[in-house]
Fold:
Amino acid sequence: MTTKPKTISFFQALIPIIALVILLGYNVFIYNDDATGGPNQFALIFAGVIAAIIGFLHKISYQDMLEAVNDNVKSTGSAIFILLMVGALAGTWLVSGVIPTMIYYGLQILNPTYFLAAALIISSIISLATGSSWTTTATIGIALIGIGKALGLPLGMVAGAVLSGAYFGDKMSPLSDTTNLAPAMAGTDVFTHVKYMAYTTVPSITITLIIFLALGFQYGGTELQDTSTLVNSIQNTFHITPLLFIVPLVVIVMIFKKAKPLTALFIGTILAGIFAVIFQPDILMKVAGSDTLDFRSAYKGVMNAMTNSVYIPSGNEILDENELFSAGGMRGMLSTIWLILCAMFFGGIMQEIGALQKISDALLSIAKSTFGLFASTTATCIFFNGTASDQYLAIVVPGKMYQKAFQDKGLAPENLSRTLEDSGTVTSILFPWNTGGAYQSKTLGVATGEYVWFAFFNLISPIMTLIFAYFNIKIRMLAGKKI
Structure:
């Protein structure tokens, strides 16, 4: 195997990133939200090829680069299958009436003025209990988007509230994988990490709640949709019963009991398919294209909902124009999976040729002061989310890189673990080509460009950690050390 010389320059490391940014920007200019339907995928491949050419010039073998890409793709295997299962779950939750039932009761309970704040709080509670932002958005998040759409609220705003709550819970829950990964990389324990992280996280979520309350009052004072008409249309289209809440409750309890997300989503999909046969026989017949409900048509209806796009017209102009009762199934997730695979191609080659390490080293070299160290760590986490396209790499690599630097400054490891979460975990959804951004955008049906300006918690968190560092607030030192 060819020895990999470490001769790549900082400028050469930046070339593929500059090319990628230019291509992605032009794609958005030309295609708008449709850029993720193919152009962005090719942009990632093209930038990866540029990185590979630089690698060849530095005697890095094709096999080594391909192996790095393979390793990256392997790391996203579970995410890809979760995406497929979320598509299946969304389809069966639609035809079974689970999502329509959530929307039906939500329209009657949730006041438009307080809806955004309520969406934030509900998502926070579910995510805290389950430890999973992805499961939260795939279940209650989809329903909240539907309610917000029916109320006539901007979908980017609703998605921002859901994601802010989901990532607050994911960040603070001891059940979360990232909440365990960050302290492991920094060299502290999870409970010290969670306790110390609360100092920056509580102010961030409080500011976020205030913003959504203010936005709610703004939209609550305008003329929104007549919910009584919408409620009647839903009731006339689906068989609405509180018994359908059994399905999401089973999924939430399974996650709370530490079942694997893929297992919980699979059970939720199958259970919803059974409930569709029991409670929505007319809907299943329409989806199957049959006049009678027998085993064949029931199987076909459920399978179509799991795998293909389904649309249930309600006869209500508002509901039908917004395509409230539609789902893409597993097929609808394929463009997102395509995006993730291309991102892993780019990230794998960039990592193998040493470009990511070169840029990270440059950031570390300018971290002379304590604040500079925090700022470099924050920038590196965000950089890895935007280039390596994976939130786990955005925690693991900076965690390994900066651990000794924090020790040398006499800083306790919980400073590093908190910064990794404040900057790595939450910013993954800000990039459409990151696995987090691609997943959340597809799951909620809202483009990243629409929700990114309203994901206030995710935007505020890295700023808050820098404010605390700059003013030396709650910066814990190692025993016998002074800042």
Summary: The chain has a mean pLDDT of 85.
